[in-house]
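forwarding from the other thread:

> can someone predict this with 4'-deoxy-4'-aminopyridoxal-5'-phosphate?

sure thing
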Amino acid sequence: MFNWENIFATRSSRMRASEIRELLKLLDRPDIISFAGGIPDPELFPKEAFKQAYADIFDGSSVDAALQYSVSEGYKPLREWLVKQMAGLGVPCELDNVFIVSGSQQALDYLGKLMLSPNDTALVTAPTYLGALQAFNAYEPSYDRLTPNGNRTPEAYRATAEQAGGRVKFAYLSPDFANPTGETIDLAARERLIDLADDLDIAIIEDAAYQSLRYDGDAIPPILSLEIARKGDIGATRTIYCGSFSKTMAPGLRVGFVVANAPVIRKLVLMKQAADLHSSTINQMATHRVAEAGFDAQVAKIGKVYSRRRDCMLAALARYMPEGTSWTKPQGGMFIWVTLPEGMDGAALLAKSLETAKVAFVPGQAFFADGSGANTFRMSFSRADDQSIEEGIRRLGGLIAGEMISRAA
Ligand code: PMP
């Protein structure tokens, strides 16, 4: 019997099953209250609008184009809509700065492929989006910890990267309502990050997957916007903005986008030609129609529901979590991040919780490139109703309190 390991490329050794995807299976078990998945509530998908959009496409003159191959850059009217949308976010750009991808996850893969040679360093926050680590891992990078609020010097980053055998290529972060913490990077830290990127001569990958999902507080300009304000023009920027319709509309469409300076976009277009030619023509067309007809109303509708669920979860945490635990208070997004006392283990807690409390969440360690963070976990409030949030957090709080007592004993 031969061994596939002799045939697989070295890069495949770093591709591992995602704990979260495994956990998503638990959502189907009726006895479990799950805060594990981080997916949108299907009740909020704009189903009627999409039904109408697809019907209009099929009944009209664009059906042939909708079912045909199309250009790798993406459907022009959708890119034009995005140019207007980005202008509203303080990012003046042109059509050749906008590129459609099959979900923003694809952009992360392409950007890893474009920038990372083996042993180059990617700076990521700790914790960071697990899917980004999965995307970058295939390109065999080394990771170093990005601390947007910290004071590590460029020299320190440079020295670590040299030791790893390459150079720093980019800093990846999700500045608004990050997955997994729900936290937002403040304006001053965004500005400092641009300084750092300039000093290290690296790119910034700005993952804006949750950017539209702000429920309170004032919006902070995207890093790309701040950099354009400094440098005058998107052509002079090093920030690559990755957006998505998955959280605002529906992830099954697989429509995301990249906004960046034209030379980067041109390379990404070549990668898309090699990978999948273009994103689904018909889904881009339908997305454009639905976005044009009511993107803001859709975002407002989602915000109302998710913000209530967030409030409900925060209130329940305050009521039921024992002293010694702490959690984030996000102004948007889908996630709350809980920190247990040092020495407690999120994965062990999950195993117990599934048996006794029957509550699911995601242990935090998988979100850390350096394997730290064992005493943390992620909860999503996007799909739970008020009663399950109240009941789930009550049971979980009880379980954690019990664990803390038996540890102290
Ligand atoms: N970035 C972040 C931070 C995410 O949480 C996700 C989805 N889980 C993505 C990117 C990818 O989303 P999509 O490919 O559906 O646009």
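The chain has 13 helices and 13 strands. thats all i got for now
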